[in-house]
Amino acid sequence: MSLLDRKVRGFRLVDLVAVALLVALVLGTYLAKTMAGRERAEIASIERQIGEEKARTRLLEAEVAHLEDPARLERLSVAYLGLAPVSIKRDVGPRDLTDIARTAANTGKLPGEGMSVKPHQPLGFDPTGHPPEPQPASPPVAGAPAR
């Protein structure tokens, strides 16, 4: 009696193994299709989110284009800040800037204008062009580590 002819409760052992294998294949196929369906649903959801984000991006780009419109910015700057485009009369070359700075520092007024400016001079600034005088070093503090 061979293994292929052996009977278990009236069924050949080969038949029982084939049925068990068939059931395992059916369950495996069912589980694979179920997981693939879930993945497909998740992919569709993510693609929908991508579409929504692209639409939102287009909307934000349109809003930025509207907010950065030069005509709109000019209108708002005139209306709320009182700013206007610079007159061509105020155009100067790089060589004239030092003369304007010296005049403003000495007189407190801009040349050609009645506007007064606050004479603000940064440390070491000399409108005559002389180098700043060296400052004496401060005495060391008692107990401080030497450098």
Compact summary:
This protein has 3 helices and 2 strands; from the N terminus they run ββααα. With 147 residues, it is an all-alpha fold. Among the domains are: 7-67; 87-121, no CATH class.
| Shape label | elongated
Radius of gyration: 43 Å
- Give the DSSP E fraction (strand runs of 2 or more residues): under 5%
Question: Given the helix and strand composition, which structural class is it?
Answer: mainly alpha
Name the helix and strand elements from N-terminus to C-terminus, one letter apiece.
Answer: EEHHH
- What is the arithmetic mean of pLDDT? 80
Distance between the termini: 102 Å
Q: Major β-sheet, in short?
A: 2 strands, antiparallel
- Number of helical stretches of at least 4 residues: 3
Index terms:
3% strand, two-stranded antiparallel ribbon, 147 residues
Structure report:
The chain has helices at 13-67, 70-81, 94-107; strands at residues 7-8, 11-12. With 147 residues, it is mostly helical. Among the domains are: 7-67; 87-121, no CATH class. Strands 1-2 form a two-stranded antiparallel ribbon. β1 (7-8) and β2 (11-12) form a beta hairpin. The protein starts with 6 loop residues before the first strand and ends in a 40-residue tail after the last helix. Residues 115-123 have low confidence and may be disordered.
Per-chain topology:
Blueprint: E1 7-8, E2 11-12, H1 13-67, H2 70-81, H3 94-107
